[in-house]
Amino acid sequence: MNTFEALAVTVIAVLPGALYIFAAERQTGITRAGLADRALRVAAVSAFFHFVLAPLTVWLYQSAWADGRLTRPPVPWTLWWAPLPYLVLPLLAGSVVGTGIRRNRGWALRVNGRTPEPRAWDALFGHQPSLWLRLRLKDTAGGCNGWVLGAFARDARGSLDSRASGYPEPQDLYLCDTAICNEDGLFVLGADQRPQLRNIGILISREEISFMEVIWGEPGT
After folding, report:
1. In sequence order, what DSSP letters do the residues of the chain get, joined into one string?
2. Which pLDDT tens digit goes with each residue over 98-152?
């Protein structure tokens, strides 16, 4: 085996695991591990996919690699499909599992393992929650006497969702809508006993927040 072939085998050996983790983290927006742990995860996931694809690998080796058809040009057009399972299957599996994790599905959490999010920030905002937030800014000149009330949810107009940055990026928060509050930081309720929205979103850095109250359900109920 020459240097090129050895490099190709090494890349193929770890590529399925890397693609799976890339696809899963693309959905969750959370990087849960450091470099050493991620390397072990890539190796373990790659081993699993190579186990699943072992019949195809053996067939390709016996029917194409051993006689040089894959290493001696021109490569037959009938074999150009061969890399697709090693690329598509990990990407598809990672996307499905990542979506399940983001939506807090039990089966996805069992597949992924009970790996805790690296920060409480990611645990709170990493699973598509719908909640109200009552924020107190360090600078009391901002907001309403330092208070900002908002909804972490889908925009009622359907154009944009609230967003929170994920690990390892700096923590910032976009609320798709904010609510009217009084000087004490309490929600001003309308005739329907629901918070009155301002139809104004806001972007806030975690560094500007003194503390944050998380409200599940409707304020005032």
Report:
1. --HHHHHHHHHHHHHHHHHHHHHHHHHH----S-HHHHHHHHHHHHHHHHHHTHHHHHHHIIIIITTTTTTSSSPPGGGTTTTHHHHHHHHHHHHHHHHHHHTT-HHHHHHH--PPPSSHHHHHHTT---EEEEEEESSTTSTBTTEEEEEESB-TTSS-B-EE--TTSPPEEEESEEE-B-TTSPBPB-TTSSBPB-S--EEEEGGGEEEEEEE-S-TT-
2. 888 878 788 887 887 766 677 888 888 877 678 899 999 999 888 888 999 999 9
